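Hi C.,

You asked whether I'd gotten around to modeling the 274-residue construct. I have! Everything is below, sequence then structure, no commentary in between.
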Amino acid sequence: MRALIIIISTFTTVFSQYNVYDINNYNYFQDSVRVKSPVPMFKSFILPGWGQVSKKDPQWKSFLFFGVEMITVGSNLHYSKKSNDFKNDFESHADKHWDLKRWYENTKIIFPDRWSDIIIGTHKLGLKINGNYFNTNSLENLSKQYSWSDIQVVRDRDFYENIGKYDQFVGGWDDKFDDPFDSEGNWYSERKGNVESVILTKKKNHYRDLRYKSNINSYYARYSISLLMLNHFISGLDALISPTNILPKNSKYSLKFTPYKTLNEGGVLFNLSW
């Protein structure tokens, strides 16, 4: 028993003096890069390629980063304009060919047994009457109290999404009416996958196509912004750590980049001093 107590006391004394937060108590690997001035990095963060020019790096680097900058900026402007053009087209198309009164009346024809439930539906359109706001779940009562010329549909983002996406609002399109549940004609049904089908008209389908083109160009514009930001980051990092023969002689700043790895952890340490 005495021997056991001595062993436990010894281990307790040893480990109580061990600082688990002291990096010197671990085996780790470390390398570092010291940069006399971080100014080129900040220049490249502002304008890719600028830091490389100031450091007299090979010209191809400056041309590469600046070229990517021009391409991504140009791509963003190009795709943003295309997206807005298609957006104007599909909104104009909907304003011309979709009508609230027509939707109400055609819904009774398309869904004769449950038209009232379809009008109320799971999705809503905003309505405005004499400065007051309602939505389409109360349209049946509103149509009895006001004339159709007094009831205005709010043509906001939800409106333009809903009328192209959901069967609930298909009755508002002004295509010449025929059977909406066959697979041909002005009105037709199209199967989506193995289960669901969607009711389309020729004008609704054209509207959906315009809206898709607007959305896909908007995605491309966003992707180009992501690439632009990545180009700024890579250019700044390259200006920071790339070797060069031209460094300011009397710089007031220094930046130390130290990747290290302990036994169980990894990390990167930046030290900025002045």
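If it helps when you're writing up: The chain has a mean pLDDT of 82.

Thanks,
B.
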